[in-house]
Amino acid sequence: KCVVRIPTCHDKPGITHVVQFTHQEDTQISIALPTVHEVDLFRCFCPVFFHIQMLWELVLLGEPVVVMAPSPSESSETVLALVSCISPLKYCSDFRPYFTIHDSEFKEYTTRTQAPPSVILGVTNPFFAKTLQHWPHIVRIGEIKLPGEVPKQVKVKKLKNLKTLDSKPGVYTSYKPYLNRDEEIIKQLQKGVQQKRPAEAQSVILRRYFLELTQSFIIPLERYVASLMPLQKSISPWKSPPHLRQFSQENFMKTLEKAGPQLTSGLKGDWIGLYRHFLKSPNFNGWFRTRQKEMTQKLEALHLEALCNEDLLFWSQKHTEVEIVDLVLKLKNKLFQADREHLPMKPDTMEKLQMHIDAIILALPDDLQDILLKTGTT
């Protein structure tokens, strides 16, 4: 018997969840898939691996990218490899591992009257070499196979040179990367080819490289956003939870001088320009919305814990029945919200709050008790 846990859309990228076992015998065989995008990175990027860092930037910034490949499987694998290269950051734009002329967005994506949207397309039809020629970044993949010799240096090609799907493999773009190329990772992978290092090991090296690069980029943002959280002492049980402070691009940029990516990465280049571009991208928008939601939920949880530490029964003895009923209804609603949104609270907070509610209701006249016990939540 094999237990498999497939990741859901609610999982955080980069986190492997532990499979929960119900029976002793279940522990014998178990598989926890860390991601549904797990592909052989090195094999996918091999035809263009001199440009892996530029491709990482294009994906990070949510730029429109077309992958032209000879088969649906190669097109799909390459698109999924691109999407996964910014992990643990979640890619928040659309991506189509295998896009065809029959897809409903065909006209929208091939029109030249508007700029291409933030999407990564994988295509195989030679017709696309002409109809998608106006897209700013095109990755041409030949037949994917592991090299028997060290790949030679390949220059970035100009878009006007892309005439047909038979054009040579390479990256066709006029994009100039913000960061200087990391020669170390290129040498490391080339050495692996020379020494016939297994493809799996090459992929592990490449995945770790992407992970460290993304983390170096995102840590300064995580640190700044954490500073927007109000202090715990500002949370009062008798007032609404305080709001997060506004994200200020300029204030964030000021933090980079002392606490920027240079603390964890030796890469030189225009990091500031890369951040400015990223802050306008769908990936930043999605990441920041997730962080906002998490921190707002944390504030709600801390507010509930502050309420639990109050003597609510003593408070109710000093207030009118109207005020008490209003408090009970608000507390019931907060309990319902906490349960529905799985707020990050201490385990006994919900029970304590329910006991407070029950104690307050029991101290009220019988007619009010009946109404409040029957009243649900909205």
Give a quick precis of the structure:
InterPro entries: DENN_C, DENND6, Tripartite_DENN. This protein has helices at 41-45, 52-60, 72-84, 106-110, 128-131, 183-194, 199-226, 249-259, 271-278, 282-308, 312-316, 321-341, 349-362, 366-374; strands at residues 3-5, 30-32, 65-68, 94-96, 119-123, 137-140, 170-173. With 378 residues, the protein is an alpha/beta fold.
Count of β-strands? 7
Oligomer: single chain
Helix content: 40-55%
| Overall average residue pLDDT | 84
Radius of gyration: 27 Å
The helix-and-strand class reads alpha/beta
Helix tally equals 14
Shape: elongated
Please mark out the parts with pLDDT under 50 across 5 or more consecutive residues, or reply none: none
In N-to-C order, the SSE pattern is EEHHEHEHEHEEHHHHHHHHH
Major sheet: arrangement of strands: 4-5-3-6-7
Distance between the termini: 43 Å
Biggest β-sheet description: 5 strands, mixed
Fraction of residues in β-strands: 5-15%
Family: Belongs to the DENND6 family.
Protein name: DENN domain containing 6A
GO cellular component, one term: recycling endosome
GO molecular function, one term: guanyl-nucleotide exchange factor activity
